[in-house]
């Protein structure tokens, strides 16, 4: 059996696309895999430009890729992760994917003849299954990562992730001398509310409150559930006046909202503590302590109000 016949027989039988081009980009070999998946006969494509047969090819990229293979006399590779597909070959898998075309791993190999490199062989591997299951795995990993950051009830940051955010923001503010403010608030008389409406009623209040407050914040603000009915907000690049303005909007919004639960109209209020980074804060925990102390003072002064830690700095230092 002649070498060319032997190679042609192998190319026809393997479950991989084989496309051979001359240096003018004309098709020389178009194996059975390509015929089946492209729905094109070999006699209809051999001798034609690959760009005529596959007009969807990214021509400039494709020409540069082949030029590199020829000039360097070295194989090259393009995975489905770089480009989902080069050739629009419909996949035949009984699965739902984001694309109707086969995901492809493509290998470009120079073919050396007597006059040097005369052709380039492109092997097209069907990577649809790999791409599909990798996508499902990535989705699961994204969901796990999100679950590690998000409070399951209120859908804001959980305490662990929120404190990690505060640690980074606090360090950045200290390093560059920028402002960062912290707001801590909780819902007044929440235990009584739970006793009256049950935990489902309490959960409804927490969920609605978190959603309402989230709508008042900037994209750069970081909102978390600190514990129970207590929440905390990091305000980057915010001075005291700006933080007090946000805090008052939060207090006013909660106080003016009626939450409907099983035919009952629930009204709640909140006490808010505000603190802004200063020289007394050596660690992010110090900033939390200041805001928490201001929250304590807001409750002590009658609830449903905003308190600023700087107004109680001397008292806080003694505690």
TrEMBL record:
According to its UniProt record, this protein's enzyme class is transferase
Q: What is its EC number?
A: 2.7.7.65
The GO terms this record gives for MF are: diguanylate cyclase activity
Q: Which PROSITE patterns match?
A: GGDEF
Listed Pfam families: GGDEF, PAS
Give a GO biological-process term.
regulation of DNA-templated transcription
Cofactor needs: Mg(2+)
Q: Which reaction does it catalyse?
A: 2 GTP = 3',3'-c-di-GMP + 2 diphosphate
Q: Which SUPFAM superfamilies match?
A: Nucleotide cyclase (SSF55073), PYP-like sensor domain (PAS domain) (SSF55785)
- Matching Gene3D superfamilies, A to Z? 3.30.70.270, PAS domain (3.30.450.20)
* InterPro entries recorded: Diguanylate_Cyclase, GGDEF_dom, Nucleotide_cyclase, PAS, PAS-like_dom_sf, PAS_fold, Rev_trsase/Diguanyl_cyclase
Q: What sequence ranges are listed for the domain GGDEF?
A: 178-311
TM region(s), chain numbering: none
This protein's name: diguanylate cyclase
Task: Tell me which species this is from.
Answer: Thalassotalea marina
Lineage, highest ranks first: Bacteria, Pseudomonadati, Pseudomonadota, Gammaproteobacteria, Alteromonadales
